[in-house]
Amino acid sequence: MKAAAAPLLALLAACAPHVSGLMPLEPAPDGGAADSLRPVFRWEPMPGGDDPRITELVYDVQVRNASGGIVLERDGLTACEYPVETPLEPSRAYVWTVRARFRWEGRRRWTEWSRLTDPGERLAVLVAPPPKYLPFRTPAEKK
After folding, report:
1. Buried b or exposed e, range 58-91, using 16+ CB within 10 angstroms
2. pLDDT value, residue 125
């Protein structure tokens, strides 16, 4: 039975979304539904962010609508979460992304925006296609 499960697990891992940049936690990057019209966006901290050579570490979050327009943008967050203050539209598809900005030994640096990538994709080859940010859908309006 274990031998039969191994190919299935490999197939499921190949189908899982690959994320470049900071790892999102909520809403998950699988295109699922947010739990509220005011979701709380959460992500893992920047790897190595506790290194003493890194200072002024902050995070920036963007939420875009289906046509790519920015509907929410917050810069300079010090925590790895952002609770949305103004409700998003019900039953809508959105994407979100997050990045870290910091100083490394006094020089300004930043990570790439979190996005979905295809297995084996290399940034050097990525030229024209727009990024595939992290999709989610808001719930229907409660009556």
Report:
1. ebbbbbbeeeeeeebeeeebeebebebeeebeee
2. 47
CA angle 109, 27, 71 (to 5 degrees): 70
Return the H-helix or E-strand segment holding 24.
strand 24-26
Beta bridge partners of 65: 94
Write out pLDDT tens, residues 9-51. Answer: 344 444 556 788 889 999 988 878 899 999 999 999 998 888 9
Domain ranges in the chain are 18-114+128-137
Partnered with residue 110 across adjacent β-strands are 101
**pLDDT class of 140 with cuts at 50, 70, 90:** very high
CATH number 3.90.650.10 given to 18-114+128-137: no
